[in-house]
Specification:
Distance between the termini: 60 Å
Structural class: alpha+beta
Order of helices and strands: EEHEEEEEHH
CATH class: Alpha Beta
Strand content: 25-35%
Shape: globular
Bound molecules: coenzyme A
Number of helices: 3
Length: 183
């Protein structure tokens, strides 16, 4: 089993938000931001595992404030948790506007990435060497995210098995919908 320091794969990537990234409202498309973050997650996880990796899941993407054309968007990413074949990459995204000299934190999120060999088989990834309290707290947060993600999958699987229509109608009636089932 090999172990690597977080600092060996930690990255910071900055990109100018150009007009072609904008939506009809003049702000940067959420999908553009997700694509940039996905690429950063790839770089970070492939550096840690020294391997080809794929995106498995994304947790906690919440856009706290819009990203403007002209902003310098910086994504700071590091592997916060390692499992057997997966790594959780934690990301902080911030924007800097050079004219107004303002800096905004726009979102934080977690990408789970899996290492695969050339035949598509999952591969073991190196563990993490934790060297300070901040890294330990982040590792623990990553552990919680993995547990939460497992519980979420169990809830989805349980819900998929729900066949009692009246139970579903009762539950959904409490929400904002009108149930008008056709025969
Ligand atoms: C995600 C994937 C690797 C899971 O494969 P699997 O054989 O069902 O995996 P297992 O249940 O044995 O789990 C393997 C690992 O994935 C993790 N995992 C599986 N599903 C997951 C999910 N929905 N969210 C987070 N982690 C997940 C498991 O916790 C496990 O982690 P560990 O090895 O670090 O403990 C597989 O479904 C896959 O390759 N998906 C496509 C990924 C891809 O191509 N992404 C690019 C999109 S274009």
């Amino acid at each position: 089993m090999t172990y690597r320091k977080i600092s060996e794969s930690e990255i910071s990537y900055t990109e100018l938000m150009i007009p072609s990234y904008a939506n009809f409202g003049g702000k940067v498309h959420g999908g553009i931001l997700l694509s940039i973050m996905d690429k950063v997650a790839y770089v970070c996880a492939s550096k840690h595992s020294d391997n080809y990796v794929v995106t498995v899941a994304v947790e906690g993407v919440e856009f706290l404030s819009p990203v403007e054309v002209g902003d310098l968007l910086t994504v700071n990413a590091r592997v916060v948790f390692t499992g057997n074949t997966t790594m959780i990459v934690g990301m902080d995204v911030e924007c800097y506007h050079t004219q107004t000299k303002t800096r905004r934190h726009t979102n934080s999120c977690f990408f789970t990435m899996a290492a695969k060999d050339q035949s598509g088989q999952l591969m073991q990834v190196p563990g993490l060497i934790i060297t300070n309290k901040e890294e330990l707290l982040q590792f623990n947060e990553g552990r919680h995210i993995r547990e939460m993600s497992k519980r979420k999958r169990i809830v989805f699987e349980e819900n998929e098995g729900t066949t009692n229509l009246q139970e579903i109608i009762d539950a959904c009636s409490a929400e904002k919908c009108r149930i008008e089932l056709q025969a």
